[in-house]
Amino acid sequence: MLFNAFSNPSTGKWIIPGAGVIWSLGCFLLLKYYGVEAEIAGVDSIVFALVFLGGVFVVDRVFGLFTPKGKNGWLLFAVPFFLSLIGTLAHGYGMAWLYRSADHYLEFLSFGFYLRWAILALAELLVALLALVVSKLERQEEIQQREAQMLQLSKDAELAQLRQQLQPHFLFNSLNSINALVGSQPQKAREMVLQLSEFLRGTIRKDSQSWISLKEELNYLKLYLEIERVRFGHRLVVDFEVEPSLEDSKIPQLLIQPLVENAIKHGLYGVTGAVKIDLKCRKEGNYLILEVSNPFDPESAAPEGTGFGLSSVGRRLYLLFGRKDLLNTESMSGVFRVELKIPQYQ
Amino acid sequence: MIKTLIIDDEPLAAGIVQEYLRDFPQFEVMELCADGFQGMKAIQQHKPDLIFLDVQMPKITGFEMLELLDEPPAVIFTTAFDQYALKAFDAKALDYLLKPFSQARFRQAIERFLENQETGNREESADQELNQLAEKSNRLVVRVKNDIKIIPVQDVNFFEAEDDYVAIHTSVGKYLKKMTMKSLEESLDAGKFARVHRSFIINLNGITGIEPYERETYLLRLRGGEQIPVSKTGYARLRQVLGL
């Protein structure tokens, strides 16, 4: 509907009556200019304005709800054309009957018939086009709103899912290690059960959106590494290099762990012998930079199914910040490095 | 005495197999191997009757290690892998143990092995099935004398059938691997490789030209200067893949 074209609907309500007033004023002045008596000119212009408004009403209703497409395109021209013809005829006969004795006016009326029709048709055609544009904009706005809502919903769901995507592989292997320890080192087995529980609890923390301090995340990471160290023994060495002043910086939960997991996977499964993983953290401008590097064997192509951890972190960063340039990787001389940038807001 | 090997990169996981195995004194664990390389060497050295094999290990997977063996011993997989992978195991392994596994389940596997040994009912087609089941992979593992080489498939220029073997031609050299052209073709990405001839599969990336040869056959030129014959059906397939 045309009045929806205004962001404030109460202003929009006046658009059609306003157009009628302007239309009748214009007609009145024009008729006066051509020497029509003031009384007749007034009635004529008011009736013609009503005819115009009636046409606008119909055209707006029709094209606000129905968009002619393809074969139906001719309707866009036909409706204003016939509507204005009917309107002009009605106006003409009505006025001629009302002022049947005013010869001069009657002559003027029949003389100007085609002109009136043309102008009315043109005006109604413009209104029809306008109605089409407005209804299209309305629909688009509606779609946009719905899309935004859906996006928000799927974003929430995806974030929750990505966060909780626990590697079953990790879980079962850890349980297997516990199974092995129960017989030989029961004390150690109990320790690992507790560590594993605490780790699992961390992955299902309720408030998924809140940020936590770097210190908390690193503690969580150490827990994870303790478990991995039990599994892989002496082969795994992890070196932390974090400036103490950064420990209170806030970061989204569980972003670093998948990177370290990835590093372990590539390091341990790509290289025989001891594996050293470095984790560095520093601040650059408004960004917290996290760097995870691991050795890898450039000769052995990555086995199947890797890289998931990285892409899931990239996806989460995109969902959180709407940017795709926050995660970078490089590999050179046998070292694979992942750099993660986390924007810091005050 | 039954010679046994345990191949697992996690010491504790290897430990529990060893622990469970103590109930069966007729088994002797020859060696604990932490990866497929060690495993392959140990298999050649000890000629074991049975191996316990993990799948995800450093450098090469348990599957890839098995592919390299001419006469694979009986295999019991020990793995945390989930169901869909297990379907593949089913056919080729004597048994598989899902980590963590119980002593009772372990005993079952051992009993199955002992039964099989009595009846001498070793699946002879084991390694052929292994190849057929090879899932889409982005690398090939080959044996060069006593060494193992991992070749990323994108580095391969073309494959050529040679009796029971397939010759893998890369810019660095030529490697032989025991497998069939059919199973190889199935394991390769159809958008990157095409079988242009009964004996040839080529990397589409390396094509520099194609010209008519004899009636209805063509000759393909590769970046390395090699000329590969293209059969009639191979040409049709090539046209389809390249969208000609």
From TrEMBL, chain B:
**4-aspartylphosphate PTM positions:** D54
Q: Which Gene3D superfamilies match?
A: 3.40.50.2300, LytTr DNA-binding domain
Keyword Transport set for record = no
Query: Where in the numbering of this chain does the HTH LytTR-type domain appear?
Result: 140-244
Question: Per its UniProt record, what SMART domains does this chain match?
Answer: LytTR, REC
Which SUPFAM superfamilies does the record match to this protein? CheY-like
Q: What Gene Ontology molecular function terms does this protein carry?
A: DNA binding
Q: Residue limits of the Response regulatory domain? A: 3-114
InterPro entries referenced in this protein's UniProt entry, alphabetically: CheY-like_superfamily, LytR-like, LytTR_DNA-bd_dom, Sig_transdc_resp-reg_receiver
Q: Which domain of life is it from?
A: Bacteria
Keyword terms, alphabetized: DNA-binding, Phosphoprotein
Q: Which Pfam families match?
A: LytTR, Response_reg
Q: What is this protein called?
A: LytTR family DNA-binding domain-containing protein
The species this protein was found in: Algoriphagus jejuensis
